[in-house]
């Protein structure tokens, strides 16, 4: 039996994406965004939802670019901090000791210490209630060399990304491997359950 809990902004899991931007005078800024995810394959695209009063909103509108930075679990404190204060009032990089790096491909900064960085060019905006959905085309992805697998792709177990639980308002980490995607379901086709 199911229990109805009504319409809520809950889905599992949500990512912990730290969005990197530049302000008007070139000041790097970062913001923790959980309302986000891949939204297109060709071109590869990421969607992030941000309220208009946020500093990052203005930065993306002005620069037409942003980065997605995925922190490993060892940066939980810094990732959470990026959501607690406004870039209009403080220098978040000075406060956290993290290093903003000028992106090679877009007009935004990424975070050196975070193992995964996607450089995105703004291609679309959509107003949804109090949020604006920014769609960025992924122009390049940078991954720490020690987080690359034998196929030259990012390894989630080495990156150790944080996940956000919007129901309990807490962070989680990646658990055990459950099965191989686009493969385990073939057991149903072969009737080998």
Tags for this model:
single chain, 193 residues, alpha+beta, Pnp Oxidase, Chain A, seven-stranded antiparallel beta sheet, three-stranded antiparallel beta sheet, 5 helices, globular, Flavin_Rdtase-like_dom, FMN binding, oxidoreductase activity, acting on the CH-NH group of donors, NAD or NADP as acceptor, Flavoredoxin, Split_barrel_FMN-bd
- SSE topology string: EEEEEHEHHEEEEHEEH
Shape: globular
C-alpha Rg, in Å?
Answer: 18 Å
What would CATH call the homologous superfamily? Answer: Electron Transport, Fmn-binding Protein, Chain A
Distance N terminus to C terminus? 25 Å
Low-confidence stretches: none
Tell me what the CATH architecture is: Roll
Strand order of the largest sheet: 3-2-6-9-10-5-4
In DSSP terms (H or I, runs of 4 or more residues), the helix count works out at 5
Number of domains in the coordinates? 1
User: What assembly state would you assign to the polypeptide chains in this entry?
Assistant: single chain
Query: Helical content, roughly?
Result: 10-25%
User: At the first level of CATH, what is the class?
Assistant: Mainly Beta
CATH names the topology as Pnp Oxidase, Chain A
Mean pLDDT: 95
How many E strands? 12
As a percent range, the share of strand residues is: 35-45%
Largest beta-sheet details:
7 strands, antiparallel
Based on helices, strands and strand pairing, what is the structural class? alpha+beta
GO molecular function: FMN binding; oxidoreductase activity, acting on the CH-NH group of donors, NAD or NADP as acceptor
Cofactor: FMN
Protein name: Flavoredoxin
InterPro entries: Flavin_Rdtase-like_dom, Flavoredoxin, Split_barrel_FMN-bd
């Amino acid at each position: 039996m199911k229990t109805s809990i009504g319409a809520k902004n809950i889905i599992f899991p949500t990512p912990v994406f730290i969005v990197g931007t530049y302000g008007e005078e070139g000041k790097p800024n970062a913001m923790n965004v959980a309302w986000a995810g891949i939204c297109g394959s060709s071109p590869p695209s990421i969607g992030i939802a941000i309220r208009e009063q946020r500093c990052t909103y203005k930065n993306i509108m002005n620069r037409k670019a942003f980065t997605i930075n995925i922190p490993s679990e060892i940066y939980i404190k810094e990732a959470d901090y990026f959501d607690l204060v406004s870039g209009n009032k403080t220098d978040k990089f000075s406060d956290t000791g993290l290093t903003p790096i000028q992106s090679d491909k877009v007009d935004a900064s990424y975070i050196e210490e975070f193992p995964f960085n996607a450089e995105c060019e703004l291609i679309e905006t959509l107003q949804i209630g109090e949020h604006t959905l920014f769609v960025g085309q992924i122009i390049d992805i940078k991954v720490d060399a020690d987080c690359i697998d034998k196929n030259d792709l990012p390894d989630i177990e080495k990156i150790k990304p944080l996940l956000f639980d919007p129901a309990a308002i807490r962070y989680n980490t990646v658990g055990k491997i459950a099965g191989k995607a686009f493969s385990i379901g073939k057991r149903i086709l072969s009737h080998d359950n």
